[in-house]
Amino acid sequence: MKLRAKVNLALSGAFLVGLLVATGGAYKLLIDEALDSSARDARIIMEGASAIRTYTLTEIYPLLDAQLNVQFLPHTVSAYAAQTNFKLMQKKLPEYSYREPALNPTNINDRAVDWEAEIINNFRERPDQTDLTLIRSTPIGKFLTLTRPLKVGSQGCLRCHSTPEAAPPTMIALYGSKNGFGWKLNETVGAQIIAVPTSVHTEHAQRTFVLFMTSMAAVFAAVFVVLNVMLTLLVIRPVTAVADIAERLSLGDEGVPDFPRARREA
To answer: Which pTM was predicted?
Structure first.
């Protein structure tokens, strides 16, 4: 095997090993960063929803409390406020979702489905747990799901959820007396659930990965060409010239010129 072929084989082998290592490391790094970005999106939405809940409970509810004896206003309910606000956001971000399901809600539309009930029961069994992040596979793709428990935090909540007799008659007239009662102080009754599609960030990560690998391949090709040129000029031509002179001398050729030596400056 010629010298050039040996060097090129060694360079190609080194590149392939480096490419495999870089491929695995870069892909994992980019996918992890994509999931972190999805989690950040979920946390931002969660904090926004929690802020709306707090604002409704502390600012809106006191203003409308007296009217509950005349007409029940869902606007005083923090869960209603947070979910209604998110529906406006969802018009521009239809792939995102936010729910506040409960095991025994006043409005049956908020009743937890099986996987949501499992999350709520997990919080009930682990009262010290403040949040839970899951990756869920669905027929329309994978979603990063951030959840937080919803607890009965004050006696004010029990006004509407302890017994039908204690609840505002206007609420009973609207929702009935069968659902949303029997709650206890500090009990976990539901959860805030944010679902963010992982594809939003993983697709960007995959495009970045392809660009990164393409750039690496282009850099290697350029280095490969430069090294081959340098190999030809600095190694192969001098070695070939020496070999030719040695061969002619071995055959007794007296007309062989001296091999030119590089001059050193004084």
So the answer is: 0.72
